[in-house]
Design a protein that fits this description.
The protein is mainly α. The protein has 2 domains: about 400 residues, Growth Hormone, Chain: A; about 55 residues. It has 14 helices and 2 strands; from the N terminus they run H-H-H-H-H-H-H-H-H-H-H-H-H-H-E-E. A two-stranded antiparallel sheet has the order 1-2. The two termini are about 25 Å apart.
């Protein structure tokens, strides 16, 4: 096993860079991808004014990224295993960086939306590669916990810091800088990746990608997410929504049939779900994604639309929550060694749910220090404590040649959970606001809707906390393998009793 500061020889006799350099590259890359989901939200009004975007156009600046990102995560994760994690990482990073530049130069709404869709493709290639690089690099119990703690802290805090950075860049410079900021970071990461990362891929893997499976799962997830995110302009019962959801479900059913019966080298071997830890970990990721997306979205609206915060002030208001997430995630890697992922998920998700229930008591004009800061930090700490054990559970005991697959699956679960949860909560919040008694002020009606959304988020996290009880008491916390010139086709599972 290697420590975080050591190095060793990789495939082909090359000397691996220090482990901390690999960890830093993966963490910063994942932070960039997560940051880009939220950094744009604060800049939407400025984008509307600068490019003449319609209300629908503003929504699709966000939705275009979500659609391609969620739809291609599975494919991106499997490609990393088959064609090389370093190669796929650099391709995804290069595409993401180039499209960020392209989007910042946009002269029309269509140009910007196209750039965001292409950014989502780059993010879907990049995100699972960051986690698969880590899970194949750090194989011992202690080093994997520390690596996943750092990765989770930077990834989990990206949403909150994105809101802050988006406000700062939009207020002090221009909305284009919320996209341009990725360019110098991406260039530095590409240079660092070229020097520090060593190629690895699944041993004895068949390089022929399961194209029927890839097409059906990508199309199915894309159409399903399209149906969900389009509910901001169409009702759940509209033909557009119903047909989209039905077609998405049929395509995903066809994908499962192909994987089970027809694919010689399946994109998603269904046998992977025999692992109870992996299955439960991904189910929990759905609940975490739904609650996380909902909390940041509705709290941002509450602060700006109800309490009249500027983008910069709203961003600063999220900073303590982001720091709380980081603190929780950094503590999680040590705590999980003492109490195990099962108990830590129950506690962490329960704490976050308590924060959301507290937040659901806010009223129009509630003071930040008295009514917002405390619950937002509680949510941050709880979610931060949950990311490490959730990631460990969803990737525990997975053979090295399926590391990218497991990473893509986890990211997909969280992203699709976020899309479904946010769309459902947005509908509920809008219905509550619209059904307000005549004479109630608009800000009070909106707050009632947001409060219900926070309450729904809390219930979702309590479901996730209950799901954690289904994790096996003896949960694989990491894997051990002997250093070799070629990656072992399987791993030896080390279990910790909790």
């Amino acid at each position: 096993m290697t420590a975080l500061g050591q190095s060793r020889s990789g495939s082909g006799g090359r000397t691996w860079a220090p482990s901390w350099a690999v960890l830093a590259i993966c963490c910063i890359a994942q932070f960039m991808v997560v940051l880009d989901v939220s950094i744009v939200n604060v800049a939407l009004p400025a984008m509307r004014d600068g490019l003449g975007l319609s209300v629908t156009g503003q929504q699709w600046v966000v939705n275009a990224y979500t659609l391609t990102f969620a739809g291609l995560l599975m494919l991106g994760g499997r490609a990393a295993d088959l064609f090389g994690r370093r190669r796929v990482f650099m391709i995804g990073l290069g595409l993401f960086t180039l499209c960020s530049l392209f989007g910042g130069l946009a002269q029309s709404g269509a140009w910007l939306i196209a750039a965001r869709a292409a950014q989502g493709v780059g993010g879907a290639i990049l995100a699972p590669a960051t986690l698969s690089l880590l899970t194949t690099k750090f194989v011992g119990l202690a080093e994997r916990r520390r690596a996943l703690g750092a990765w989770s802290a930077t990834a989990a805090s990206g949403a909150a810091i994105g809101v802050l950075l988006g406000g700062v860049l939009t207020d002090l410079l221009d909305w284009r800088w919320v996209l341009f900021v990725n360019v110098p970071i991406g260039i530095l990461l590409l240079a660092g990746s070229w020097l520090a990362l060593t190629e690895s891929k699944a041993a004895n893997a068949n390089p022929n990608l399961d194209l029927p499976g890839a097409v059906t799962v990508t199309a199915g997830l894309s159409v399903l997410v399209y149906g969900i995110v389009s509910t901001d302009t169409h009702s759940w019962g509209s033909p557009t929504t119903v047909v989209s959801l039905a077609v998405g479900a049929l395509l995903l059913a066809a994908f499962l049939l192909i994987e089970a019966r027809f694919a010689r080298h399946p994109l998603l071997p269904l046998s992977i779900f025999k692992s109870r830890s992996l299955s439960v970990g991904n189910a929990i990721a759905v609940t975490v994604g739904a609650a996380l997306f909902g909390m940041y979205f509705f709290l941002s609206l509450y602060l700006q639309q109800v309490n009249g915060y500027s983008p910069l002030r709203a961003g600063l208001a999220f900073l303590p929550s982001g720091l709380a997430v980081m603190a929780g995630a950094l503590s999680a890697s040590r705590l999980v060694a003492l109490i195990g992922p099962r108990r830590q998920l129950v506690i962490g998700l329960g704490v976050a749910a308590a924060g959301l229930l507290w937040l659901s008591q806010a009223s129009a004009g509630s003071g930040y220090l008295a009514h917002i800061l405390g619950p937002a930090m509680l949510v941050g700490v709880g979610l931060g404590l949950s990311f490490v054990p959730m990631t460990m559970s969803a990737t525990a005991g997975v053979p090295a040649h399926e590391a990218g697959l497991a990473s893509g699956l986890l990211n997909t679960s969280r992203q699709v959970g976020g899309a479904i949860g946010l769309a459902a909560m947005a509908t509920i919040a809008a219905n509550v606001a619209h059904s307000a008694v005549p004479g109630v002020r608009l800000d009070a009606a909106l707050t009632n809707g947001y409060d219900v959304a926070f309450g729904v988020s809390a219930v979702i996290l309590l479901v996730g906390s209950a799901l954690a009880l289904l994790l096996p008491r003896s949960t694989p916390l990491g894997t051990v393998r002997a250093p070799a010139r070629e990656e072992a086709p399987s791993t030896v599972v080390v279990a910790a009793e909790v």
